[in-house]
UniProtKB/TrEMBL annotation:
UniProt feature coiled coil, ranges: none
Domain Lin1244/Lin1753-like N-terminal: 4-79
Record protein name field: DUF4373 domain-containing protein
Biased composition (Basic and acidic residues): 90-107
Pfam families: Lin1244_N
Annotated segments matching region Disordered: 84-152
């Protein structure tokens, strides 16, 4: 679909085209569409006047014939250096808008993914830091009641909690760090209460 070109079913009923066909025959109509197909593939749908001889060879007509099609029937817009088709540019506007919307959606999606990756890395770094601090400064609170396993790993958050618009896991962890809450058991208890927990796999 990158080479998409809309061909109106009633294009041949256009007055300018009808005049051109009357003068040049259906051969002229074919040349006209050959030029449009060429312009469709050019940047901004315009081409240098210097390509006319080359385009004439492609269409297997004389340069003079091709120039008549381009210059004499007001089908193309010609200036000192280039030529284009206002009709082609107009018909391509919906397509161009659609392609631009896709590019913008892709760009926004990429930015969202990048932010999620950054948030995940930050959250992981905070968890690793707290785990390290807990090992270096073990809690003095009593542990090891009967039937209770000592927690040594900080619970990791589910992916959805990394969405800053609905959750603030990173802010919670930063605040706990500021308050010097480093005991793994205490941290996990807070995460459970705030529904930020995702239980790690443990051996039975």
């Amino acid at each position: 679909m990158e080479a998409y070109l809309l061909h109106d079913a009633n294009a041949g009923s256009n007055l300018k085209l009808m005049i051109m066909i009357q003068e040049e025959g259906m051969k002229g109509y074919g040349i006209y569409w050959t030029v449009l197909e060429f312009l469709r593939l050019q940047n901004e749908y315009k081409a240098s006047l210097k390509v006319i001889p080359i385009l004439a060879q492609k269409a297997r007509v004389t340069t003079a014939t091709l120039k008549r099609i381009i210059y004499d029937y007001a089908l193309f817009e010609v200036n000192e250096t280039s030529f284009s088709s206002p009709g082609l540019s107009r018909r391509m506007e919906p397509w161009d808008a659609q392609q631009e919307a896709k590019k913008e959606a892709g760009r926004r999606g990429g930015l969202v993914n990048q932010q999620r990756i950054r948030d995940a890395k930050t959250s992981s770094a905070l968890a690793n830091k707290l785990n390290k601090e807990n090992k270096e400064n073990p809690s003095l609170s009593p542990q090891g009641e009967t039937g209770r396993r000592k927690e040594e790993i900080l619970l990791t958050p589910p992916e959805y909690t990394l969405n800053r618009q609905t959750h603030n896991y990173q802010g919670l962890m930063e605040e706990l760090a500021r308050q010097k809450v480093t005991d793994i058991h205490d941290l996990n208890a807070i995460l459970r209460l705030t529904r930020f927990e995702c239980h790690p796999e443990t051996d039975d």
